[in-house]
Write a structure and sequence with these properties.
Elements: E1 7-12, H1 17-25, H2 30-38, E2 40-45, H3 52-61, H4 65-68, H5 98-104, E3 109-114, E4 125-129, E5 141-142, H6 147-150, E6 162-163, E7 166-167, H7 175-199, E8 204-209, H8 211-228, H9 236-259, E9 264-268, E10 272-275, E11 279-282, H10 283-289, H11 304-312, H12 315-324, H13 327-340, E12 352-358, E13 361-366, H14 381-393, E14 407-412, H15 413-416, E15 428-432, E16 436-439, E17 448-450, E18 457-460, E19 462-468, E20 475-482, H16 486-493, E21 498-499, H17 513-518, E22 523-524, H18 542-554
Helix pairs in contact: 1-2, 7-8, 7-9
Length: 559
């Protein structure tokens, strides 16, 4: 590779080869096809959970979640049994990002729309923040002057929940309304990327297209059908979706063309996609059945939560009410009851309980003395015995209808993660099979019941990876590629040393042997690693938190 090394990273949030390969093989997306066919490609294993917050934080830092501390968008008050969480994580949680590492080495960077980069920090170059930027925020770029290049119509994300000047209170808009907005966002981002590439000097250029995630969430059923018939252009819905992918492919082709043949290009996603869960797994009911959780008794005639759970455990009555009462009303009643009634769990008799992480990935927390408000499990031997019981009891977590196990993986937190934040994670991590979503309600008649997902598509662990350039070999369907390896690999492409704080490796299998011989991997000991954050200044105002909550609810990320 002659001259100063340059690297382009194109992130397609949530992209999966299950959709892209058939399109590439049929010639419908020639630019993506060229990257795949002329370089190295394979499926890219995401983080646990395979979720925006954890995955992009790992990409940004080169560290596993135990090092950067982010599993979810939100913070939870574990001491007070907070399950839903409050507030939002932000860029202040991420120390020494990849682009800051390159900036410190004198490289010029352009970072566009990577999630969890708000508020923007100074880099040697330019930054446009991504997902979790509050709607209407004015400080979303560094430097501020590049807003002129972006244009007045620049979109960080779609706002499906907006209807005129107001937020939608419930439900998603029609697909015929969503897709044009997604396509508009994608086109605007592509145009802004072209201008920044051409008007600014850069050594490292990265842009993330969130449109692939939004299309997969809201159109997965259509994508599956379209894929089966080869995106038959006689079908209008297929045509509209195909046009979106063609436009995205043209954007990628333009970015690669602007980068020039001397640049190494990486096309990647933070996770993959598949159909949404069809069943709800009641983890707290399972914990109750194995003697680790107890619900409280009735507290007066007007104890609405007690009666809601009691009714919910009567199969016939529950089915009757679901038949007559609209789902929107059911959700409203549930929220109203929870707001005026006490928690149904008896914490003084509960050793373990469910907490959400993301859809099929959930946690079980142990009710430890002094770590929880009403903890009853002593730390040490008793704590470990409870964790042993939870793991052993997983064999009982079986779908009552099919008789099949519902759990794909169960592990102690320290077996999946390492670092200073591990002790803030759930004590046990449960990864359910993709057809299940974890739930904490005690108002279930069976361990697993049908679930009507708000969105047809949900995340999977296998994202995409493809790379092409003067240093890259041609190889098909590589295995063993992990998201956590990409930051070290980017630094190596840029001929920079790898800090010892990185948990990933350089993907040496991508590179031409002669390139590897000429460029031995260098590492260095980083003395600047900071301890975990304790209390930090609040990044988001109360109003911004409310706007973010509305946007994420409108996109289906939170209830």
């Amino acid at each position: 590779m002659k001259g100063k090394p340059r690297v382009v990273v194109i992130g397609l949030d949530g992209a999966t080869f299950d959709i892209l390969l058939p399109l590439a093989n049929s010639g419908k997306i020639p630019h993506i096809s060229k990257i795949i066919n002329q370089g190295s490609w394979g499926r890219l294993e995401s983080t646990i959970p395979p979720f925006t917050a954890a995955a992009w934080s790992t990409f940004a830092t080169g560290q596993n979640p135990g090092q950067h501390g982010i599993l979810s968008f939100r913070e939870r008050d574990r001491f007070n049994y907070d399950v839903k969480g409050s507030g939002f994580v932000d860029a202040s949680r991420l120390k020494a990002t990849l682009w800051e590492e390159l900036s410190a080495a004198g490289k010029t960077v352009a970072v566009i729309n990577v999630p969890l980069t708000y508020p923007p920090r100074a880099v040697n170059g330019v930054m446009v923040t991504g997902m979790l930027t509050p709607p209407g925020a004015s400080n979303y770029t560094y430097p501020d002057s590049i807003k002129t290049t972006l244009g007045d119509d620049y979109m960080i994300d779609v706002d499906f929940i907006r209807q005129g000047g107001q937020f939608r209170k419930e439900g998603f808009p029609p697909k015929t309304e969503m897709l044009p907005e997604i396509r508009r966002m994608s086109k605007i981002r592509a145009g802004a990327s072209f201008r920044l590439m051409n008007e600014r000097a850069w050594d490292f250029f990265m842009v993330v297209f969130t449109s692939t995630d939004r299309v997969s969430h809201f159109f997965w059923d259509d994508l599956e059908t379209a894929g089966q018939d080869g995106f038959d252009e006689d079908n209008r819905e297929n045509t509209d979706l195909l046009e979106y992918f063609v436009e995205l492919d043209e954007a990628i082709g333009g970015i690669v063309s602007n980068a020039g043949e001397s640049s190494n290009v990486i096309l990647m996603s933070d996770h993959g996609f598949g159909p949404s869960p069809k069943k709800r797994a009641y983890i707290n009911i399972w914990l109750e059945q194995v003697g680790l959780l107890s619900k409280r008794g009735q507290e007066g005639l007007l104890d609405l939560e007690f009666w809601r759970v009691r009714v919910g455990r009567n199969r016939r009555l529950k089915a009757l009410l679901r038949w007559f009462i609209p789902e929107k009303t059911q959700s409203a009643v549930k929220s109203a009851v929870e707001s005026v009634s006490g928690d149904i769990i008896d914490w003084n008799r509960t050793q373990a309980y469910w907490v959400p992480i993301y859809f099929q990935v959930c946690g079980v927390e142990v009710n430890v003395v002094e770590e929880r408000r009403e903890g009853i499990v002593s730390p040490g031997d008793e704590y470990e015995k409870v964790r042993d019981r939870i793991i052993a009891a997983v064999e009982m977590l079986v779908d009552p209808t099919t008789g099949n196990p519902m759990v794909e993986l169960v592990a102690r937190r320290e077996h999946l993660y390492s670092g200073p934040y591990v002790e803030s994670f759930p004590d046990i991590i449960l990864v359910l099979k993709p057809e299940y979503i974890g739930a904490g309600s005690l108002a279930g008649t069976l361990l697993a019941e049908s679930f009507n997902a708000a969105r047809p598509g949900e995340h999977r662990k296998d994202g995409i990876f493809a790379s092409v350039g003067p240093a890259i070999r041609k190889q098909d369907n590589l295995t063993g590629l992990k998201l956590i390896d990409l930051p070290a690999t980017v630094l190596y492409m840029m001929e920079q040393p790898i800090p010892d704080r990185y948990d990933g490796r350089v993907l040496t299998e991508l590179f031409d042997p002669e390139f590897l011989d000429r460029h031995p991997i260098r590492t260095y000991i980083d003395p600047s690693v900071e301890p975990p954050l304790e209390d930090t200044d609040q990044t988001f105002t109360t109003e911004e938190e409310a706007l973010l909550e509305d946007r994420l609810r409108g996109l289906g990320y939170i209830e």
